[in-house]
Amino acid sequence: MKILKFLPLLVFLPFLSCSSSEDEPTPTPTETMYFPNNTDNNWETKSIASLGWNQSAVQPLKDFLAEKHSKSFMILVNGRIVMEEYFNGHSATETWPWNSAGKTLVSTTTGIAQQEGLLNINNKVSQYLGNGWTSETLEKENLITPRHLLTMTSGLNDESNWVIKSNLTYLADAGTRWSYSNVFQKLIDVVAASSNQTFENYFNTKLKNKIGMDGFWNFGTIFTIYHSNTRSMARFGLLFLNKGKWKNEAISTSQNINPSYGYLWWLNGKSKYMVPGSQTVYPTALVPNAPADMYAAMGAEDQRIYVIPSKNMVVIRMGDASDPQNPNFALSGFDTALWDKINALIK
Questions:
Q1: Helix (H), strand (E), coil (C) string for the chain
Q2: Which of 83, 182, 192, 210 could disulfide-link to 75, CB 3.0 to 4.6 Å?
């Protein structure tokens, strides 16, 4: 039972302009893509030797992951498991928080709702939540669309992570300032209002159940976080590897202020990037030693889904912060160090 059989609402969404296929690397022709089914836990594997990878680099990679407080690590190639490792007492059945990597689940669910005609990301948010959902003037509030929430450009004050009306005050006109903040959570309310059901019920029906994920949402007072086992995170990465996305929009630059940010996905290979909690612009790619076409779901304490179309590869990492002193992904240096180890394996 192939995942793509269940994805008519996720593939080739007709809104927004699509980047040219000429801009995308062409994967090397390989074996057919594999999809695990939804009725059992069987999953095809592929050996490192059959890929011609460097077997001697496996143990240094595993040692690095264990040392850096990882709980789990997976590599898929053409959907098949090449590596699946668990560390520090973790197991295949245990759940772990995605942290901000779960934002990609919210953007995908929003895309499904648009494809079903329940919402339009170019309409004002107040069309779905009513006037007065912020503490801005009505004129400024009406500038904010779901697209701005998807791209972190709402212009709302980002001083507090607690998304309540009194904290949603004016800082800039929507679309003029990029700032990573928790206000994206209002998309959850937009989907719930437009679908006339809870967000979790809509998410379960339209996404989770269709690709065989496990897991649950924790709708906390401040943070909304998804928890799942590692293979469920890998299923979602495999979905995006196989174009279960907003055409190319989720993984194409969503605005010009921070070109390394898509629709709640991080994008490698761009000329510059910005990071959460700062307006500093760094004039380099997000992870310079990783493939340029890589895009990633990134969460605090180094939760990662790396998707690499040119290699038909998905990489998953779950765990505690690699550097407890720098749990923010932008400051940990973990991505570069990890890709040094991966490159030694796959080259």
A1: CCHHHHCCCCCCCCCCCCCCHHHCCCCCCCCCCCCCCCCCCCCCECCHHHHCCCHHHHHHHHHHHHHCCEEEEEEEECCEEEEEEECCCCCCCCCEECHHHHHHHHHHHHHHHHHCCCCCCCCCCHHHHCCCCCCCCHHHHCCCCHHHHHHCCCCECCCCCCCCHHHCCECCCCCCCCCCCHHHHHHHHHHHHHHCCCHHHHHHHHHHHHHCCCCEEEECCCCEEEEECHHHHHHHHHHHHCCCCCCCCCCCCCCCCCCCECCCCEECCCCCECCCCCCCCECCCCCCCCCCCCEEEEECCCEEEEEEHHHCEEEEEEECCCCCCCCCHHHHCHHHHHHHHHHHHHC
A2: 83
pLDDT given for residue 295 in this prediction: 95
Q: What is the pLDDT of residue 40?
A: 83
Q: What is the token pair recorded at 92?
A: 């295949």
Contact 256, 26 (CB under 8 A): no
What are the pLDDT digits (tens) for 79-121?
A: 999 999 999 999 999 999 999 999 999 999 999 999 999 999 9
- Pairing type for strands 224-228 and 96-97 reads antiparallel
What does the alpha-carbon distance between residue 137 and residue 150 come to, in Å, rounded to a whole number? 21
Q: What is the pLDDT of residues 114-156, one digit of tens each?
A: 999 999 999 999 999 999 999 999 999 999 999 999 999 999 9
Cα distance between residue 285 and residue 287, in whole Å = 6
Tell me the β-bridge partners of 266: 261, 296
Q: What tokens were used for 174?
A: 């929507």
